[in-house]
Write a structure and sequence with these properties.
Elements: E1 3-9, E2 14-19, E3 23-29, E4 36-42, H1 52-58, E5 69-71, E6 77-84, H2 98-105, H3 110-113, H4 121-131, E7 143-145, E8 149-151, E9 157-159, E10 169-174, E11 178-183, E12 200-206, H5 221-237
Antiparallel strand pairs: 1-12, 2-11, 3-10, 3-12, 4-7, 4-11, 5-6, 6-10, 8-9
C-alpha cells in the first residue's frame, strides 16, 4: 500500500477534509484510551451523510468492527471497515458537548488557557462543518472509534474502560468521495474525572479495487445491496 498523506491529531484536536473513493484511511491510537469521533458526508452532495440507524439495523448490530459498512441515508456505502485490531467501536454514544465537558472536567475557556482549553466534540465538529459550508443543523450521530459501549438488560449504556490499548488500529476504505470530520475528544460516557484524550495518527493510503469476494461486500446481503446502490450512483455520474 502506497502512503498518500498523514496527520497526527493531538488531544482535543480536530480535522476535516475530502478523501476520494478508493482510499484507505487508517487510524492508530498513539496511547491507550483513545476516542476519535467521526462524521462522514458525500463530498459531492453533503445532504447525504452517515446514517446511524440504517447502518445498525441493516447489519443487525449495535457496534462496529471489520466487515461492517457505514451507510448513508440514501442506502449507499460511504466507507467500509476493512481492518480492526479492537473488534468493537461505538456508534451509539454520541459526541461530547460544552455543558457536559464543563460539568465533568471543570470550566475552561480559550481566553485564559489558549490551546490548552478543553474542547468538546460538538464544538469541534461544528467548526469543521462551517468550514465546509454546513452548520450545526448538519450534525448527526457519529461513530466513536476506539471506544466500547455495552448495554445491560435494562437498556442502560455503560462505557467499558481500558478497551483501547496503545497501538490499536482500525482502517476505513472509502467507497464514495467523502467529506470526513474528526474530533479527538472524549466519549461523552467516559466516566474518567480527568480529560481523556490521546494523540491519534491518521494515514491515507491507496486501496485495492473491491472484488467479488470482498469481505465487507459479502458480510451481509444488506451490504451487497448498499454496494450495488453506490456503484449505480457512480455509473450514472459517469
Amino acid at each position: 500500500m502506497n502512503g498518500v498523506w498523514q496527520i497526527t491529531i493531538p488531544a482535543g484536536g480536530k480535522w476535516s477534509g475530502v478523501v476520494g473513493r478508493g482510499r484507505l484511511v487508517r487510524f492508530t491510537a498513539l496511547e491507550e484510551g483513545a476516542n476519535l469521533t467521526v462524521l462522514l458526508y458525500n463530498a459531492k452532495d453533503p445532504s447525504e451523510r452517515y446514517n446511524m440507524p440504517d447502518t445498525l439495523k441493516a447489519q443487525h448490530t449495535s457496534h462496529l468492527t471489520r466487515g461492517h459498512v457505514l451507510m448513508s441515508d440514501n442506502g449507499r456505502v460511504l466507507a467500509s471497515l476493512t481492518e480492526d485490531t479492537l473488534g468493537w467501536h461505538d456508534p451509539i454514544g454520541g459526541y461530547s458537548t460544552r455543558a457536559g465537558t464543563d460539568a465533568r472536567y471543570g470550566l475552561t475557556n480559550y481566553q485564559e488557557l489558549r490551546n490548552n482549553w478543553l474542547r468538546s466534540g460538538e464544538e469541534n465538529l461544528t467548526v469543521e462543518l462551517v468550514r465546509a459550508g454546513l452548520g450545526r443543523r448538519d450534525l448527526v450521530p457519529p461513530v466513536n472509534l476506539f471506544s466500547k459501549i455495552s448495554c445491560d438488560e435494562q437498556g442502560d449504556m455503560h462505557f467499558v474502560p481500558r478497551h483501547c490499548p496503545k497501538g490499536a488500529q482500525v482502517t476505513l476504505r472509502t467507497e464514495m468521495d467523502i467529506l470526513v470530520l474528526l474530533s479527538n475528544t472524549p466519549n461523552p460516557l467516559d466516566p474518567s474525572p480527568s480529560y481523556p484524550s490521546v494523540p491519534v495518527l491518521v494515514e491515507v493510503l491507496e486501496a485495492e479495487p473491491v472484488n467479488e469476494d470482498d469481505y465487507c461486500l459479502n458480510f451481509r446481503p444488506e451490504n451487497t445491496r448498499a454496494f450495488e446502490n453506490t456503484w449505480a450512483y457512480y455509473a450514472l455520474l459517469g
